[in-house]
Amino acid sequence: MNSALLSAKDKSQEWSSVLLFSDGMTGQDLRQQIETTAQQCDVYLMTDCSQIMPELLNDNFDILLLDIDIPELDVEHLLPQIRTHFLLEELPVLLISSEASTTKRELALDLGATDFLTKPLRASEIGLRLRNALTFRHCFKANQLAQVRLEQTVKARTARLNMLIESGLMMAMEKSRDRLLDHILREGQKLLHCDGGTMYLVTKHKSLRFAVRTRQDALPFQEIELFDAITGQTNDHYVSAYAANHKQTVLIDNVYQETRFDCSGTRHIDTHSGYKTISLLTVPMAPRNGNVIGILQFINALNPDTGTVIPFPKDMVALVEALAAQAAVALDNLQLIEGQKATTESIIRVLAAAIDTKSPHTGHHCERVPELAIMLAEAACQQIQGAFADFNFESENQWLEFRVGAWLHDCGKVTTPEYVIEKATKLDMLYNRIHEIRMRFEVLLRDADIKRLQTLLEGGDIKDANQRFEHEKAELLEEFAFLADSNMGREYMHADDCVRIKTIAEKTWLRHFDDTLGLSQLDTHRLRPEDKPVLPITEPLLSDKPKHIIPRPIHQVPDPALGIKMTVPTDMFNYGEIYNLTIQKGTLNKEDRYKINEHIIETINLLEKIPFPDFLQRVPEYATTHHETLDGRGYPRQLTEKDLSIPARIMAVADIFEAITASDRPYKRPYKLSESLKILRNMKKNRHIDADVYELFLTSGVFLKFAQKYLKPEQIDHVDISDFIAHDVLP
């Protein structure tokens, strides 16, 4: 029989397939004899020895019978070929030979033949030898099948374990809470090969809330209480509540036959949705502390081959519990991180609010600047061309970093004395010392009146005495009014006014009381011998006394390692009366101004001591560079354009615009919108602020959005932004 005929044969799985090699005449007799003796055996005769090997490779035979009396059969060549492709137990090879072929038979047995039959064949021997060979073969096939099944099982379990490992890694890296919840549920569905899943999360008031579902139907709004509101006992009626309360996985093979738990809710949903829930697997999620934080519930396990709904395999429970444990840890970690971030940001906001509350002169600066900065940063991130085309905060962590930097931009003001921040007049120092000077004028006026009365008592000229008094009174009133006006602070004080202040200061008055009494320990310690003269003593009306100067302690000098390039005044404070009244512009002397500006140094000092995590590393940069300028003339480090990032430049514009438009600063009037934009335009021309940020501030409409929210209606005048973008010279 040739191979084409063999390939066309029809075999039944219950029958054994035997390939017989012999010659045409002998082979037919052997075939008939074997088929008659051995039941359920199909014997296929082959007479061409060159086709034995191809046919064995082409078809699956249970036994090979070789008539080695055929001269053309070269067993020395054929058997090694067979054993190269087939194991001994995989393909039994039985030899058929006469007694005369003993030598050839022994050689064939040595080369891998399994057994032999001796001619003439006997029925009992044929049956025995074939049964033994088939038993050998069937054992191999059963073992092979078991091995295949084992490999498939191991492969499937390995795949699930790999899926579990990959899922754990993905959950550990996921930063979005919504994506994490969805990932957990879908990985569970994939692992279990089921039709859907639902996640519940435990709420603060001890109930289960539907969080996410893989199916598209809407999530129910109602929550499942974990405890009975009246008795306080655990609510074990519902499978999800039971699993959460007892931290136990629950398998339900058929929801419609379930008697342990109340599944009416599931059946009710099925009625309305048209879906039918049959099998159910409910697994609690508990992180390291052991408290259940949620429930994973999967529905309708599916047969991988047919797709029909089946009960969830019990051997999958351990894997899905491992997934639930991983999920719980990942979710718990994320919630801890989110909680820490929220707490950190809340503390920072409280600090900023405290700084705003500390001084009415600060107003709501620390609150408004972050809001304006965020509005401007959002506008920059939306740009797809121009200077900000490549700028973007790509993650929530980057936004958090910017927000924290914005909220902390003035945190150093906690160290700035309130009376310096609130110095609305030149003589302010906890209180307005103009009243001390006024009191001296009161003394001088009273002295003049006493002198007038003495002249009258001594019989002097009444008219002349009264005229001199009125003249001196008018002079004192006018001089005090001038000093009081000078105390208010001006845009600019003329040099002649400073000369006049010094001239007025030369007037004298008589002091009778000891001004070293009732002082604090610190003030007493600073007194010098000349501060305790013999009383009464004539003193100038205004003076700059040694006790007015507060030396700078060594610890108030910035650490050189901070890179501070601000000029540090020799004295920390100077309360001299003439010194302060002759301030050329505003109300602050150089010591006061340094103390105000020093808040940024203190901000650096504070933030440098905080071990910020990696995702907040740029907070100090964002918080401490808003007083720097592009031209390198800012403070405290005199950074230049190359040192200032886009967020830092945004912070500078936000800080300045809020300050000049604020209406709650008692030391200045609030500027109108157009005036504020002119000031910003000048600062842009002088390279104090970034031109691109300034233009974005206008073109994005952020300036108007902020103004409409925080400026008084009378401040918001008409603005044509083309006037501020197209021209570089103020009208």
TrEMBL record:
Keywords: Kinase, Phosphoprotein, Transferase. InterPro entries: CheY-like_superfamily, Cyclic_di-GMP/3'3'-cGAMP_PDE, GAF, GAF-like_dom_sf, HD/PDEase_dom, HD_GYP_dom, Sig_transdc_resp-reg_receiver. Residues 510-712 form the HD-GYP domain. The modification 4-aspartylphosphate is found at residue 67. The keyword Phosphoprotein applies. Residues 17-134 form the Response regulatory domain. GO terms for biological process: phosphorelay signal transduction system. This is Diguanylate cyclase. It comes from Methylomonas lenta.
